Amino acid sequence: MNAALDPAPTNGNGKRKRVLLGIAAVFALAGLLWLLLWLLVFSRREVTDDAYVGGNQVAISAQVPGTVIAVLADDTQWVRAGQTLVKLDPTDAAVALAKAKSALAQAVRQVRQQRELAAQYDAAVAAREQELRRAEADLARRQPLLGEQAVAPEEVAHAREAAATARAQLDLARRQAAAAHALVDGTDVAGNPAVQQARAAFREAWIDAQRNAVLAPVDGYVAQRSAQVGQRVQPGQPLMTVIPLHALWVDANFKEVQLEHIRIGQTAEVRTDLYGGDVVFRGHVVGLGAGTGSAFALLPPQNASGNWIKVVQRVPVRIALDERQLQAHPLRIGLSATVTVDTRDRSGAVLARQPAAAPVAETDVYARDLADAEREADAVIRANLGADAR
């Protein structure tokens, strides 16, 4: 009976061994797959969900003092570069411009007068030279006759005094001519320093008059409007903000232990909660922050105080986004995102080594004011030169 029952336990033990071996093989395979996945995928990328969309926030402020009479753009509205956003009362600027215009015209006419005065002194010098030649000739004729007693000594003395007087008057005329020429020589009327000074004052007044219209320096969307009709504003006072949503980026805050293999130029994928996983933004690393977020905080931690607890710090890594994708799928400043950086290519630099080759941002909106002011000043000068001006 016992002999017949002996094989059963042996078969049960074999099955258990095979099951255990199968389970062990599954775990070993899973471990091998995880190892390969780590070596080929996870170790070659860095991921963080501490990332936020960033962008330029262009503060719009008045350049001259004034009272708001019109607000032409509101929050959420799109504006174009050069578009008028706020208008200020132009009364004071118009009065100042009229004064500057009359001062420029007066300066041109005064310089013309000075040039004519210099010409008068030149004519006076020529007349004095003629008088001196006549007086010296009279003296030369009378001196030989004095020895022959043909003329009285007093007459010769008078002739000598007349020559001396003519010589002094000539010297005075020459000095007066030199003083007059010192104000006008070397330039034409338009280039005279007095005209240039008045011209600069006119340009300043003209530009101030134009700046009663507060312009948008860039294309973008209006936010944080605070300008109100009737409000008295000062230069530099913020009135609203324009945000160019076509030029956004992502600041991904990686832990310091994740930065070892991150390089400039590496590709990145950005996913936002706004679009879920349906839209993946393609970007690349353009730079790493020069310090941790805590180092630039308003109240940075004092780690040397003694009450110190080690905290893993984070460093912002800037990810540039594709402008075409931003146009197709607009983002907003401050949105959260998840960033995955592909670190397989580690040939790039850790920190930037060259300065920027192009401006980070620029506008030519305000340059137009100066060109227009120059044309207006030229028109005022031409109108006061006169037909015979030199």
Automatic annotation (TrEMBL):
<dbReference type="GO" id="GO:0005886">
    <property type="term" value="C:plasma membrane"/>
</dbReference>
<protein>
    <submittedName>
        <fullName>Multidrug resistance efflux pump</fullName>
    </submittedName>
</protein>
<feature type="transmembrane region" description="Helical">
    <location>
        <begin position="19"/>
        <end position="41"/>
    </location>
</feature>
<dbReference type="InterPro" id="IPR058633">
    <property type="entry name" value="EmrA/FarA_HH"/>
</dbReference>
<dbReference type="InterPro" id="IPR058634">
    <property type="entry name" value="AaeA-lik-b-barrel"/>
</dbReference>
<dbReference type="GO" id="GO:1990961">
    <property type="term" value="P:xenobiotic detoxification by transmembrane export across the plasma membrane"/>
</dbReference>
<dbReference type="GO" id="GO:0046677">
    <property type="term" value="P:response to antibiotic"/>
</dbReference>
<keyword id="KW-1003">Cell membrane</keyword>
<feature type="domain" description="Multidrug export protein EmrA/FarA alpha-helical hairpin">
    <location>
        <begin position="91"/>
        <end position="211"/>
    </location>
</feature>
<feature type="domain" description="p-hydroxybenzoic acid efflux pump subunit AaeA-like beta-barrel">
    <location>
        <begin position="248"/>
        <end position="341"/>
    </location>
</feature>
<keyword id="KW-1133">Transmembrane helix</keyword>
<dbReference type="GO" id="GO:0015721">
    <property type="term" value="P:bile acid and bile salt transport"/>
</dbReference>
<dbReference type="Pfam" id="PF25885">
    <property type="entry name" value="HH_EMRA"/>
</dbReference>
<dbReference type="Pfam" id="PF25963">
    <property type="entry name" value="Beta-barrel_AAEA"/>
</dbReference>
<keyword id="KW-0997">Cell inner membrane</keyword>
<keyword id="KW-0813">Transport</keyword>
<feature type="coiled-coil region">
    <location>
        <begin position="97"/>
        <end position="176"/>
    </location>
</feature>
<keyword id="KW-0175">Coiled coil</keyword>
<comment type="similarity">
    <text>Belongs to the membrane fusion protein (MFP) (TC 8.A.1) family.</text>
</comment>
<keyword id="KW-0812">Transmembrane</keyword>
<keyword id="KW-0472">Membrane</keyword>
<dbReference type="InterPro" id="IPR050739">
    <property type="entry name" value="MFP"/>
</dbReference>
